Amino acid sequence: MKISDILKQNEVTLSFEVFPPKTDALFESVEKAAGEIAALKPHFMSVTYGAAGNTAANTAELAERLQTQHGVAVLAHMTCVAASREDVRGMLQDYKRRGIENIMALRGDIPKDGRRSEDYLYAVDLIRDIREFGGDAFCVGGACYPEGHVECERQSEDIAHLKEKVETGCSFLTTQMFFDNNVLYNFLYRIREAGITVPVLPGIMPITNARQVARSVALSGATIPQRFRTMVDRFGDDPRRMQQAGIIYAAEQIVDLIANGVNHIHVYSMNKPEIAAGILESFSAILGR
Ligand SMILES: Cc1cc2nc3c(=O)[nH]c(=O)nc-3n(C[C@H](O)[C@H](O)[C@H](O)COP(=O)(O)OP(=O)(O)OC[C@H]3O[C@@H](n4cnc5c(N)ncnc54)[C@H](O)[C@@H]3O)c2cc1C
Which residue CA neighbors atom 5 of ligand 1 most closely? Predict the structure, then answer.
């Protein structure tokens, strides 16, 4: 099912993100975890993709299995930073053959060695090709950055580039993680003012261990509110308490978002069924379950 239709049909939606294994040996354990998350019956699940294309086969395989064997709609990510147009054409044929209808079209981070695709500079170029090669077969999503993308100095320019992506063929946008909902509300105000009207899915990252703060939070460039800092200071050394505190923090963000009319929630569940279940439980009545 196309994600644009899922978003139209349901007032409140919940989706979970998983990542594929880097090696085939780990496939089974990742599929097991992803399958447990699928059993929670999210409206859809997304499967990420290595920037240089190194997980391409596992992304496609995991996405297909989630859809056919675990019964959940999927959004398969695809990056273009190291891809040729022929690679993309081949991937699209493969996705189509597997019955994958939704693609998150991304550029990917620029590799450390600086080597870039000769065909693709930005995600918008990939979106254009998905439309050219795939027509209406795919529902396409794009990434957006409530605090601005790290490479773009002015947020107004970042928003202009975002608008170009949407006009080229994105049906929805998913945000980078953020820990202060006011950041999202300001961003939504600015993009709506710029004429971007597609649904925006806030990406919520439950921070459940202190190492994550240094790794993913620092990399994302997200502002860390004092309330969040205090939580990590207090519970960071105790894994059980930190996990519970992180789930509660994320759940509070979600309840506030829905109360303010932001209804389509995407959770970076990081292949952790217990975290996905904890989040779901905290607002199941709001979801109508
Ligand atoms: C929801 C989400 C999911 C993600 N999933 C993955 C994943 O599965 N795998 C992965 O490797 N990475 C993933 N990423 C990370 C993403 O690949 C990086 O953030 C990357 O650096 C930018 O990708 P993009 O698609 O947003 O790029 P773009 O939209 O191309 O933007 C990149 C930069 O280029 C600028 N820009 C865009 N168009 C133009 C233009 N025409 N002229 C000048 N500048 C321009 C933008 O302002 C921005 O600064 C994800 C990010 C998000 C938010």
Answer: 48
